[in-house]
Amino acid sequence: MLKYTKDHEWIRLDGDVATVGITAYAQEQLGDLVFVEFPASGKAVAPGDVAAVVESVKAASEVYAPLTGTVSEVNEAVVAEPALVNSDPLGKGWLFKIKIADAAELDALMDEAAYKAQLG
Amino acid sequence: MPSPHSDTHIDTHVDTAPAGSGAALKRTPLHALHLEHGAKMAPFSGYDMPIQYPAGILKEHLHTRASASLFDVSHMGQVLLRPVAGDLGALAKALEKLVPVDVCALAPGRQRYAMFTNAQGGILDDLMIGRPVAEDGGEHFMLVVNASRKDADTALLTEALAGVAAVERRDDLALIALQGPLAHRVLAALDADAEAMKFMDLRGLRLGGVECLVTRGGYTGEDGFEISVPAAAAEATARLLLADPAVALAGLGARDSLRLEAGLCLYGSDIDETTTPVEAGLGFAIQKSRRTGGSRAGGFPGADMILRQFEEPPRRRRVGLKPLGRAPVRGGAQLYESETATAPIGTVTSGGFGPSVDGPVAMGYVEIGYVGAGAAASPPTVYADVRGRRLPVAIVDLPFTPHRYRR
Lengths: 120, 407
Prior knowledge:
The structure holds 2 protein chains of 2 kinds. Chain A is an alpha+beta fold. Chain A has helices spanning 24-30, 76-80, 83-87, 112-119; strands at 3-4, 9-14, 17-22, 33-37, 44-45, 50-56, 60-64, 69-74, 96-100. Chain B has helices at 9-12, 31-36, 57-66, 88-95, 150-160, 183-188, 231-242, 252-261, 303-311, and strands at residues 40-44, 47-52, 68-72, 77-83, 110-117, 123-131, 141-145, 165-169, 173-179, 202-207, 210-216, 224-230, 247-249, 316-323, 334-336, 346-354, 359-367, 381-386, 389-396. Chain B is of the alpha+beta class. Among the domains of chain B are: 9-72 and 173-261, Gyrase A, domain 2 (2-Layer Sandwich), CATH 3.30.1360.120; 316-407, Beta Barrel (Elongation Factor Tu (Ef-tu), domain 3).
């Protein structure tokens, strides 16, 4: 079951590892992505820290760590082929994984119904 | 996420009327057509404009370079200058007091790139000055100015040309750009006279029964045309052009990446009131007649400063900037001589991803000592500050993609 942030990220928890990506709505708003980088790869992060930068033809956008923990893995496939984030944002276009420190933080995130309500 | 912190023109040149203030965005005559084609709309210079269509900026950009794209640029200002008593020569002379270009020698059926300058030699706006072939309406000039500057330009012209010309803002006209290597074929199928036009020619063409004022040129680096058409006929004209299978719609996003690859300036980003034409590499627009020793040298605002810069190079100069990695370097990034230097030697004014280059491209200003280190085997490298890191950037000649004008 996916969780969501108001910043249009999705989070899927497997044990103590959260996989994070951006939603279909977000990739559609950003347009064709041409560059992805992970400034926090291997580092400890807290909510609000920049974990990824995704750039479209016209703009750069930051993707924040939604949870406290350590960025344990980043998706090298989207570095090589940023368009994967557009074509498969919830699958092959995932961005990074966080080994989380406190599972209780997930309770503060939105479920799908709440996220859809936010999109209106 | 989407929290874009870039400064592409799309994000920064938005009119900043606060949401809910009731300041309604203006619409062009093609607004309904954009919505019908699924355009993503955004505010731009007070207008609700199409940034991209469902194809997306990458495909729209590449289609323009391979075929032909239709851009709605009706937000731009069209200003007609009609000389009082029919004396076009007197009007040309008066216009030359505002711009450093030769207006007097502009032949009928031609247009010319120009800029309004200020007393410091800065640029108040850049524009096209066209001289239509005289018909029964009498001789006049037709100007195309930037959307964000059209009110200021109209006021400047009205004051400066009082008693010499009537200044008419032609908000009753739309402007459609048809750009790309197949544009000439599309237009010639509607009016064969299009084919004979050369770069910067200006002609009246009849497109589907509608009289249009058409210039050959544009803002993409490709061959193409800009079509001034009565607002009431704009949608029919656009549909006529779109009926050709070579033509697809393209938005302001692709327009920006195309002009950036072509090395063309965006007013408000690459040129403004603090940059002179010579610093901006626009000296080509200042003909010999207006330079020192010319028949009508000087006589425009900032002439002392601008003409001196042809003799003594200015302190800085606009250059092409090619990031050596994959990361885009965007407008506003500071440039440094080394990875550790603390004093910037330049600034990026426009930057992003070039779909035809298939990599990042940018332009900006650097101190003159870094320009044309010329004979060196490899281009000089400087460093751009991007999110706190120094990324290597080569100083290169513009454009990134060669111009393909029909001269």
